[in-house]
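Lecture 7 notes: from sequence to structure.

We start with a single chain of 95 residues. Read the sequence below before looking at the structure.
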Amino acid sequence: MFDEPIVGYIILVIETEAVQLKRIVIDEKYLGIGFKALALLDNYCQKIIKKNELWLDVYADNKRAISLYEKSGYIRYSEGVENCREVWFYRKKLI
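Now the structure, written as tokens:
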């Protein structure tokens, strides 16, 4: 069915006004797959789901994920605490 191996997955929660990026897991590191996956996700949300905003939360100490999100255009808009850990909230408006 697929010519390429599956190296990860994305979990989304479709909300009334936006899409929550609940989880992204990529097994292969440092190959740019996460960045490409997020770019494809933007297109999927706009064209298929018909939503123009994504949001997510990430633990503040997850520097690799934060770097990926910021490189992909996500902007931090809030902070909080979850499971006794600092959490940062990010959003991205799709054009």
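The chain is about 25% helix and 40% strand. Keep this in mind for problem set 3.
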